[in-house]
Structures are given as structure tokens and as C-alpha cells.
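Postdoc handover notes: sequence design on the structure in folder B. Input C-alpha cells:
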């Protein structure tokens, strides 16, 4: 067993325990508090997306929690969606909303969220990490546990469970876009330079947002990273110019490499600006993790692409 495989198995096991025993995140509370305290100093206070309960999930009663799984920070049970601003010292006018992934039951808020936001901040880009609504895993029904369904690649059942969640997550994405554009002056953002990017399920949210947006909440550019295409809502490529940046790995262990290729082909067929980076190795969920592989440089290629489009 190589180090990568062992890491993934340990991560899956720990995450399954956290879902089964929700209080486990209180163990070692001092360490968790210390970690959160360090992170909080680099970001602004979360912004609620709605006044009162989020429309469509008014009866959700579970509380959001964030746990440490090996070297990853994972958020579960989001019922009150928020937007977390990460503000650069010298904003250049560009903004990006970041949607972490996690099969619509978790959010990898570290290596697919805050770490991306901080990299963008170094380039002058204002970033917002989106905590969109998530499904709730009921310990009484372990057969529906999302980690197990991913392990067995039972996407049909997972899609069925998520069918009520994806539209809510999309609405959170559209609402986040509307908020950032309406508050562009406050954050010293050019309202015509607001992008949306997402990882895995967050890539699904990204594409659902762009396919269903109106003028007030349409991203000016998008970046789906190893997106899951089958759960995307809509399919109409916008008629207005909307550049797209796509990255994924050929050896994606969930079998999603072709999803990114298909999205790229749709953009090319629509005569839209499109860039695709398909790395030979990297697996699914690479985000900002370092694997000593060429895929580690994907974020730099994203920066090159932003610069080419006058966004850096």
C-alpha cells in the first residue's frame, strides 16, 4: 500500500467515525480551538446569505460543525449558508467565490477553500469561500452514508439522495454572486470581474450557477475543478463571453476525468474561451494538497490564465 492510498483510507475511516459519532470533534478541543483561532485571524467574519432561515430548508435543525480529518479541515451539516471573505492587502479589483467539494454532504474548507483563497489574496484577488447547504447523514441509516456511497461508486443512489440538496446549493451560489456584485464597491471589486470556482461537488455548483444565472448574478468567468457533471442543473452555455478554466486528473479515482473534458467540449462548441488542464496523475480531490507531481502547479496555471484575461 502506498502512502497516498493509506492516507485516503485513514481519512475515510476518520470521517466515517465523525459522522457516526458527532461529539468526537469535541475530543482534543484545545487543539481544534487553537486551529480555528489561527485560521480566523486570516479571514473576515462569515456573512449570512439570508435574513432568517434559508428558503427551502426552514425545518432543518442540525448544527454546523467543523472537524479535523488527518491534515484536512472538513465542515458538515451546513443549514445556514454563509460567505467568508478573504481580503487581500492590495485588492486588484478581481474577486472569486470558491465552493469547496464534498459530495454535497461535506465541505473541504481547507485545501479546497481557505488555502485557495489565501493564494489568490497573495495575487491581489479578493476571495469568498462559500459554505453552501449540505445533506445530513443519519447515523440510523449507515447504508446511506455518503462516504460509503463514494467508496462503492454508487452514484445513482447518492444522486437520488442529493436531488433535493443540489438546487438549494445552487441557490446559495446565485445568492452569493448577487451579494458580492451588490457590495463590489465595499470590497473594492470591479463588478465585471467576479468569478466563481468550485471543486468536485463545488464544481457542480459552479456549473449550475453559470447555467441558471441572470444578469445580476452571472459570474464573469468560471473555474470548475474536477467537477461532477451528472448532478449539474441546466446545460445552456451563456451567450455572453464567459471564459472557463478547467483542471482535473486522468487517474481520478471516482472516474470523473471525462466530465471535465465534456464541459470543455461544450464551451468550445459554443465558441467560448476555454482552457483545460488534464494531468496524468493527481487522483480526485487534489485541491491545494502537495503530491510532488505536476498537478501541484495547477493553481499557478490558473494564475497565468487569470493574468491572460486581465484579471491579475
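Designed sequence:
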Amino acid at each position: 500500500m502506498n502512502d497516498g492510498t493509506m492516507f485516503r483510507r485513514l481519512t475515510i475511516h476518520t470521517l466515517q467515525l465523525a459522522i457516526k459519532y458527532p461529539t468526537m470533534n469535541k475530543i482534543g478541543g484545545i487543539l481544534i480551538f487553537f486551529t480555528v483561532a489561527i485560521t480566523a485571524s486570516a479571514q473576515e467574519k462569515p456573512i449570512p446569505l439570508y435574513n432568517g432561515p434559508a428558503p427551502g430548508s426552514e425545518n432543518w435543525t442540525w448544527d454546523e460543525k467543523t472537524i479535523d480529518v488527518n491534515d484536512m479541515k472538513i465542515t458538515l451539516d451546513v443549514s445556514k449558508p454563509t460567505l467568508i471573505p478573504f481580503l487581500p492587502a492590495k485588492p486588484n479589483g478581481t474577486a472569486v467565490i470558491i465552493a469547496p467539494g464534498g459530495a454535497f454532504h461535506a465541505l473541504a474548507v481547507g485545501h479546497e477553500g481557505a488555502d485557495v483563497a489565501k493564494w489568490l489574496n497573495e495575487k491581489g484577488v479578493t476571495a469568498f469561500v462559500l459554505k453552501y447547504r449540505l445533506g445530513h447523514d443519519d447515523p440510523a441509516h449507515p447504508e446511506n452514508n455518503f462516504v460509503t456511497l463514494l467508496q462503492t461508486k454508487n452514484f445513482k443512489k447518492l444522486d437520488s439522495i442529493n436531488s433535493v440538496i443540489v438546487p438549494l446549493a445552487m441557490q446559495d451560489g446565485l445568492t452569493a454572486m448577487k451579494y458580492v456584485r451588490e457590495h463590489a464597491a465595499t470590497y473594492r471589486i470591479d463588478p465585471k470581474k467576479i468569478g466563481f470556482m468550485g471543486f468536485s461537488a463545488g464544481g457542480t455548483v459552479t456549473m449550475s450557477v453559470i447555467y441558471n444565472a441572470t444578469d445580476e448574478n452571472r459570474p464573469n468567468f468560471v473555474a470548475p475543478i474536477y467537477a461532477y457533471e451528472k448532478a449539474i442543473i441546466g446545460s445552456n452555455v451563456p451567450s455572453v463571453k464567459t471564459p472557463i478554466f478547467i483542471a482535473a486528473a486522468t487517474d481520478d479515482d471516482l472516474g470523473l476525468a471525462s466530465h471535465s473534458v465534456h464541459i470543455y467540449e461544450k464551451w468550445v462548441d459554443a465558441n467560448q474561451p476555454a482552457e483545460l488542464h488534464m494531468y496524468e496523475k493527481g487522483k480526485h480531490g487534489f485541491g491545494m494538497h502537495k503530491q510532488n507531481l505536476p498537478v501541484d502547479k495547477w493553481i499557478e496555471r490558473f494564475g497565468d490564465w487569470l493574468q491572460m484575461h486581465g484579471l491579475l
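Context for whoever picks this up: The domain at 3-135+165-308 is CATH 3.40.50.1820 (Rossmann fold). Don't rerun without checking with the PI first.
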